[in-house]
Each structure stands twice: as C-alpha cells, then as structure tokens.
Design brief:
Length: about 425
C-alpha cells in the first residue's frame, strides 16, 4: 500500500530542488481546485515506468536559525529517518567540498541505499571529472544535468532498482488512520484517549524506524486498527521536529499511509486558515475523511450550537461535503466510543465496489429523469459507466464527447451515485472518456 520514499540530500546550491522538480515535474503543477491549498514544494508524488513513489526535497526544510552545517546534517538525518532510498546530490562544478564530506559522514551511518548524483554535468567534457567523487564512498557516481534533463532517466532507473524488494505488504486487515490538524487542536490527547479506551496490541517485532511509532489496537467490537503517528504526537526528541515544514511533511506522509484521515478542528477556537490547508491535503490524496470537532466540552451550548457549527464547516470546507462531522472531547471522552465503528464504516465505503449492471441502472435512471445537456444542438450521450478503482472509488463514464459533460451534470451524476450507494466519507472520482 505505502509507496516507497525517496529523499534528496546535499549541501545548498548543488541543484537539489532542480533535481526534485525534474523528477516531480509536471505532476506538481497539476493544481486541484481546492481553495486554501498551497503547493508544498518539498513533497511530491511521482512515478517512473509504472512505479509510484514519493519524493522529499530535504533542502526545503529549514531548521530555524541553526548554523549552516547543522542544517545540512539535520536534513540528512531526516532523509535517513523518512526515506527508503537517498539521492545524494553533489556538483561537478565545485568538486568535493567540506560540506559534501560532512553530509557523506552522516549518510555512512545509515543502511539505506544511497545514490550519488553528480549534478551540473552539462556537457561531455565534464564527464571525466565525475570520477573524483568515487572517494565519497558511495560507489559509482551518476552524471546528471538537471537543468538540461541529462541523466535523469538513468537516475530514475537506479532509484527504482534500489527500492526494497520485500516492501512489507501492508495489506493485512488492520484499518490505518491518522489524525491531522494544526498544533494544539488536541491530536495527541485524542490519540491517547482512543488508545486508553481500546486494547493496544503490544508487538515485540521490531519495526523500521518509521513504522515503530504506529500503534495497533483492537476496538471493543473486535476490529483491528492502527493509528499512525504524525508530528506532534509522539516526539522523538529531534531538533527538526518543531519546524513547520517538517510537520507538514509528516502529516502528508501520514495521510499517504492512511485509509482514513481524521481532520481535527478545535471547537474553542473555531476554523482557521491552516485547518483548510491541512484538510485540503487529505482531500487531494483521496483518502477517507472524518471531521472531528474536538474540545466540544469547552463550549456553552444550546440546541443550535451543533447545527450552527456544522453549517459553518460545510460552508468553509465545501469540497469535503462527503465527510461526516463528529463532535468530541478528548477530556470528557464524549462520543469517542463511536469512533472505531465510524472509521470502519468509512474504510468500507472507501473501498466499495459497485457491479456494473447495478451502476448502469442507476445512471440510466438518472438520465431518464434529468436529460443530458446539449451544446450547439449536440447532446451528450452516456453509453456505459464502470468502476475502475477503489480507494477512492473511481468511475469511468463512456460518452460520445467528453466536452459535453458539464461540471454541473457531472456533479448530478456523482450525487445520484451517492444517493444509491453509501460513499459517506470518501471522495468519488468521475472520469469521462470518449467511446471509440
Ligand atoms: P539546491 O540549493 O541544492 O536546491 O540547488 P538549486 O536546485 O536551487 O540550484 C542551485 C543553482 O544551480 C541554481 O541556480 C540552478 O539553476 C543551478 N543548477 C541546478 N542544476 C543545474 C545543472 O544541472 N546545471 C547547471 N549548469 N546549473 C544547475
Ligand atoms: P496537539 O498539538 O494537536 O497534539 O494537541 P494536544 O493534544 O497537545 O492538546 C493541546 C491542549 O489542548 C492541551 O493542553 C490539552 O490538554 C488540551 N485539550 C486537548 N483535547 C481537549 C479537549 O477535548 N477538551 C479540552 N478542554 N482540552 C483539550
């Protein structure tokens, strides 16, 4: 389930972010129509010859006012902690510097595969100079010119060959979820309260550094869950843990590894801009989503309070109209007992498959009641609909001309699907294709 992670490390100015952009490239610029989401240039999803992976530019994580050498060593440590494969970027123009050697010394301590990419090899004459870099001790250096796109394919091949073979298949029956939200909304209190109310499974199998902080437990209904750690929950005492970029990175990694994401809001403070940003990530990643309004105990309530809060959320998070909202308190434990069953339900919806025959009955029925739109006398014709994927449920609608499928009609069809089948808590993707 979880895709491997590649981290790019190296001292400033060797070309890390240029390499990052080359690899992540066009995928980064696909901007979804989600308000409040600013692109985070340090983390991206990528793919090479069908192999998906996630990419981190550690150079983008600035660690406060730390001196330069501390910054680059911290970044190298993040790479060691977070990545399956490390790309160590150096520059042929300056040769090996003290800072390169410093990074190398940190990377020696890791048993992760390290690929040495010598960047800025813009012309063949410079190729001879890359052999000096053997002395860094990471085997054969790879010549790259990220601005010219030279050697990037070879680099990607080497990255993909270095992924661990036996990526532990995360396809056990446990339901993975994470809690995300800005600092102080109560994520760690909620995790502790949830774990306190359920039976934590004590495992004596040593996980990897990254997975060891996931906690499996069994709910009172007997279902197995794993709560995934995000920044701010269980601290490991690293300097970089309090930096904003690192928290974002951890949240994005946690979202990627989750089946269901709990977006935590703070009832006491109301909705803030940062909440939308955080929720936007989860929505974009296509995960199941539940909105938790925590600290519900702090409000003086009347019979309108909950409805008004809900209306406000619906207004501010329009793209999350599918997500259920639950009002909880980590302190009084209010409604926390309902959470496991709700997470389980959303997880089922997230992977629900609809047989084509039933699906087409629903679509054809909908079209009969609300005829397809026309444009310049040409009418949209829908031939057939089929579900092509789960997590999130994705449907392909075969039509005469995709241009004729207006957003409002697509929304109408999606709503018909939602009315007929339970897709609460999960995004649903509709893709129109021209029937040949
Ligand atoms: P970072 O600090 O390691 O992320 O480095 P950047 O990606 O910001 O690049 C630093 C500078 O090197 C920029 O001016 C880039 O345009 C330049 N640069 C990056 N890659 C190459 C390359 O392959 N060839 C040349 N000639 N310049 C490059
Ligand atoms: P995190 O940064 O999101 O992990 O937030 P914490 O779990 O550290 O909580 C931040 C503060 O809010 C702490 O002082 C908690 O005691 C408090 N807090 C958390 N949940 C609740 C709640 O449901 N009700 C009240 N009254 N306080 C809470």
């Amino acid at each position: 389930m979880a895709n491997p992670v590649v981290a790019i490390v190296g001292r400033p100015n060797v070309g890390k972010s240029t390499v990052f952009n080359r690899i992540a490239g066009e995928r980064i610029s696909i901007v979804e129509d989600v308000p409040g989401v600013t692109r985070d240039r340090i983390y991206a999803h990528s793919e090479w010859l069908g192999q998906k992976f996630n990419l981190i530019d550690t150079g983008g994580i600035d660690i406060g006012d730390e001196p330069f050498l501390t910054q680059i060593t911290e970044q190298a440590e993040i790479a060691i902690d977070e990545a399956d494969v490390i790309v160590f970027v150096v520059s042929v123009r300056e040769g090996i510097t003290d800072a390169d050697e410093k990074v190398a010394r940190i990377l020696y301590k890791s048993d992760k595969p390290v690929i040495l990419a010598v960047n800025k090899v813009d012309n063949p004459e410079l190729r001879g100079d890359i052999f000096d870099f053997y002395s860094l001790g990471f085997g054969e250096p790879l010549a790259v010119s990220s601005t010219h796109g030279i050697g990037v394919g070879d680099l990607l091949d080497k990255i993909c060959h270095s992924f661990p073979e036996n990526q532990v298949e995360e396809e056990d029956k446990t339901i993975r979820f994470s809690l995300i939200g800005r600092p102080n909304v109560g994520k760690s209190s909620l995790v502790n309260a949830i774990l306190g109310e359920n039976r934590v499974i004590v495992s004596n199998i040593e996980g990897t550094t990254r997975d060891a902080i996931d906690t499996p437990f069994i709910s009172s209904q007997g279902d197995e869950f794993t709560v995934i750690d995000t920044a701010g929950i269980r601290k490991r005492g690293k300097v970089y843990e309090n930096t904003e970029k690192y928290s974002v990175l951890r949240a994005m990694r946690a979202i990627d590894r989750s089946d269901v994401v709990l977006v935590v809001l703070n009832a006491e403070e109301g909705i803030r801009e940062q909440d939308k940003k955080v929720a936007g990530y989860a929505h974009e990643a296509g995960r199941g989503i539940i909105i938790l309004v925590n600290k519900w105990d702090t409000l003086k309530k009347n019979n309108r309070t909950m409805i008004e809060f809900e209306e406000k959320i619906r207004q501010e998070f329009q793209y999350l109209s599918y997500a259920p909202i639950i009002f909880v308190s980590a302190v009084t434990k209010q409604r926390l007992d309902k959470l496991p069953a709700l997470i389980k339900q959303i997880n089922e919806n997230h992977q629900r498959r609809i047989p084509s025959a039933v699906l087409n009955d629903v679509i054809m029925d909908a079209i009969a009641r609300n005829p397809t739109p026309t444009d310049h006398g040409k009418r949209l014709r829908v031939f057939y609909t089929t579900q092509v994927a789960v997590k999130p449920p994705t449907f392909v609608v075969f039509v005469n001309d995709p241009e004729l499928m207006h957003f409002s009609y697509q929304r109408f069809l999606e709503n018909q699907i939602r009315d007929s089948f339970d897709f609460t808590g999960t995004p649903v993707h509709l893709i129109e294709r021209k029937r040949k």
